[in-house]
Amino acid sequence: MTTGPELAYELATHTLGNGLQVCVQPDPQAPAVAVNLWYEVGSYDEQPGRSGFAHLFEHLMFQGSRDVASGEHMAGVEAVGGSVNATTSTDRTNYFETVPVGALELSLWLEANRMDSLAITQANFDAQVEVVKEEKRQRYDNQPYGDLFELLVAHHFDATHPYGHLPIGSMQDLDDAGLGDVQAFFDAWYRPSNARLVLSGNVAVDQAIELVERHFGSLPALPRPQHAEAPPALSAPMVTRVSRNVPHSLLYASWPTPPAAHVDQLALDIALAILTDGHTSRLHRALVRSRNVAEEVHSASLLHLRAGSVATLLARPADGVPTDAVAEALREELAAFTVTGPTEEELARARAQFERDWLLDLATVEARADMINDSWLTHGDPTRVNLRLAELAALTPEDVRRVVGQHLGPAPSELHYLAKESSR
Amino acid sequence: MNRPTVHLAQRWHFPTPELRTLPNGMRAQVFHLPGQHVAALELVLPTPLAAEPRGLEGVATVALTAIDEGTVAHPDGRISELLELQGASVHGVTLQTSTRLGTDAPAHRLPEVTTLFAEVLSSPAYTTDDVAHHVGLQVATHDSLEASPGAVAKRAFRSALFGRDAREGRPAAGTPETLAAIRRDDVVAWHQRHWIPDGATVILAGDLSSVDVDEVLAPIGAWPVGGTAAPRSAAPPLAPSVVIADMPDAVQATVQVGCLTPGRRHPHWAALKLAGHAITGAFASRLNLELRERLGYTYGVQGGFGARRSDGQFNAGSSFRTEVAADAVARILQGLELHAPFTELEVSDARAFLLGVAPLANETASDIARQASVLAAADEDPTFVNEHFERLEEPSAADVTAAFREHVRPDRVTIAVSGNASELEPALRAVGLDPVVLDSAG
Question: Are B106 and B37 spatial neighbours (Cβ–Cβ below 8 Å)?
């Protein structure tokens, strides 16, 4: 690895006869090996009435396979000093272990065993439905602002759109799911041709590929499953006002933006950083320091693979300032930014921050493997991780100005999330 | 294909720093980590929150969070812009017996970064507006935490364990009342009194092959001497109790169970760390397997033994749907009774995990610097990590069982629950506990 825009992680790809795609990133200095398996299935692919099933299924993948007892996958990896987990998003389900080199083969065997077979009992299924309902309560229903994300998504996608519900799903749909759905979901999506396996860490390319062939090579070749066509996202801006028992009112402005792979996403990412990252950012200086209409500003992007993504700006109004006034000030500042664009120095600062974060993320084998898989799914090319900083270096202030003008236009959707009077 | 056998390699060792004393008397630990091109620098001040005036609690936090808003030489955010241009990010935390300020930055830019960092330390501008803004942010954070069930349970736990007369029993960043009383002069006075080299340690970690370490540390070593560090002390815990922080709209009960225990230097510490992993730290821990995997009561149980400066704390925490929460608490207490002693397999799995996961937890320069700064804050040497690894090899299952039974007594733990008190109070009573519902000041 080098510093600066030239990154040169060695990346070797290989495809098994059954369609499983493998990428090996050897790193002889690393203390461990990261095994990162992405199945190309997420909440986007769920059937109506079965919201939350892709994520529930992720839990079930730890409930046993032909040669592995329920819970043994987690326990077995922990017992060799490894870390193990899984996550589900709209577009992929990610299973990962980071293990000492001597446990790499065990990790591959565990993943291959559950790619090949599942062994879920009714009792395990019932318990995991309850676990996922507790996860939903803990993360959403029992948190202040717990429905905010859902309201935000509803501004951009109809409830019937594949991106129109959250990966956690609904309590009703989780209750309605049955053991019969499990095998059908497994049969539809869990197969070598629908997976990408990244190994990053202290293993040689030849050895890694030989081990993967040994454990996954005998799995059957099945055609790559097709995903539904994405219907269009909603295009007309919406304004929603809700009143909740929360400590502070918040204003969310949001815009539809292109899919994750679109060339403008990097410039948008940098634009959002220039606008809101830290107390030196454009909007913090304008809305918090100069105009005193807000106490804090933040931004985020919700990236989607198959249809529009969403960019958001958040402002917490200053005491006594209505969210409408903040929304207006925000629109004015954005309009001004689309005329002037960032200064050379603003862009340089954002670039330096992005570069440090990018290198820091790549510094652990676990995160590096995940970033390689993300590049692979998003751009069809795992080696894009090596190009990111060069793409960043090529951005100009005009690029940043243009994408804000083009994508963060004068009429965003607005979510006015209002604190009830009594709550403070 | 048969299950592969696992061959575990040699034990990993925490790196050994080069130790220096800077011209102003500060200790420096320098970790040379080839390949770590994003370097980390951590400053550790031995400042106790107990030194805050009672009516101005939160002043230490505001002095920290407002410190990089501007300096005398580079006011109005310019200092932060200059740090950002160097690719540096600044972070910090105020804890009960230490304050830390750190930065991550490209290693080759360290000389410029530490010059700016030293300017932040030694000459913050603390304008009236910046202080007011950061007071406002802390009030908002306080209000957000008061609405968050996890934070409410933790706060109620500390309050029940230490009592509100002890600094540790009160919110670390103050309350809206104490925060509202903080003025610029108070922040400046706190900085002058407590942001001093005496007793402070600086930790530098990264690939330092492209820089001159003397040059990198020089600005920190030139931080002028002024005064001596305030003494630190620890409050004794109160008698165990069961408290409920009422959150009438909550759909879960968030539970914290725990007690103070011996710490790093106690002969039982390694045994306790093994026990903590086996009973509540691991996914395959006893409590997680029972409450999550078998009963589906929770998304997960977390906890274990954590070291404090001079002692330790056992903790088990989780969230449960309200209707099963009392049964869950009863089962946690039952589990802590350890009717079945730990098995050799449980202990060897815990040992393999704690030793095996160490290199993963210490992969970056930031990881190393953070671990070293936690130890420095406790007046511990970084060699403690490797000594601890050796001690983890020693205890038998019987030793681990005996240590846990001696230091965690289910009838002597403090229990805090945030949730709907009208349901939880009778339910906890029905399982034999005697809960007190806290008033809203928590």
Answer: yes
Q: Is residue B349 part of a domain?
A: yes
Q: What is the pTM of this model?
A: 0.96
Is B304 in the same domain as B157?
no
Instruction: Judge: B146–A366 Cβ closer than 8 Å, yes or no.
Output: no
Q: Who among A79, A138, A143 is closest to B299 (CB)?
A: A138
Q: Output phi, psi for B181, to 5 deg.
A: -85, -10
Q: Using the predicted structure, report yes or no on whether residue A423 has a pLDDT greater than 50.
A: no
How many percent of chain B have pLDDT more than 90? Answer: 95
State the total domains in chain B: 2
Q: Is A247 close to B353, i.e. CB distance below 8 A?
A: no
A348 contacts in chain B (CB < 8 Å): 85
Q: Does A420 touch chain B (CB under 8 A)?
A: no
Q: Clarify whether residues B205 and B251 are in a common domain.
A: no
Tell me the residue range of the domain where B164 lies.
18-221
Can you tell me whether residue B381 is helix, strand or coil? Answer: coil
CB–CB of A353 and B89 under 8 A? Answer: yes
Average pLDDT of the residues in B264-270: 97
* Residues B135, B64 share a domain: yes
In chain A, the percentage of residues whose pLDDT exceeds 70 is 98
Domains belonging to chain A, first-starting first, are 12-216 (3.30.830.10), 239-423 (3.30.830.10)
Name residue A58's amino acid.
Answer: E
Residues B249 and B342 placed together within one structural domain of the fold: yes
Same domain, B182 and B260: no
Quote the minimal CA–CA distance from B97 to chain A in Å. 28
Predicted confidence (pLDDT) at residue B277 exceeds the cutoff of 90: yes
Does one domain contain both B190 and B294? no
pLDDT (tens digit, 9 = 90+) per residue, A135-171?
Answer: 999 999 999 999 999 999 999 999 999 999 999 999 9
Short-list B62, B357, B102, B63, CA closest to A100: B357
In the stretch 153-212 of chain A, residues with CB closer than 8 A to chain B read: none
Same domain, B100 and B137: yes
Of A98, A349, A360, the CB nearest to B360: A98
Cα of A380 to nearest chain B Cα, Å = 28
Contact B79, B245 (CB under 8 A): no
The reply to whether B67 and B190 lie within a common domain is yes
Instruction: Please state the ipTM of this predicted complex.
Output: 0.94
Residue B58 maps to a domain: yes
User: For B117, phi and psi rounded to 5 degrees?
Assistant: -65, -40
Report yes or no on B109 lying in a domain: yes
| pLDDT for the residue A334 | 97
Q: Is A69 on the interface with B (CB under 8 A)?
A: no
A303: left (phi over 0), alpha (psi -120 to 50) or beta: beta
| CATH number assigned to the domain comprising residue B43 | 3.30.830.10
Helix axes A264-276, A384-394, angle to 10 degrees: 60
Q: Within a domain: residue B279? A: yes
State which H helix or E strand residue A200 sits in. Answer: strand A195-201
Distance from CA of A341 to the nearest CA of B (A): 18
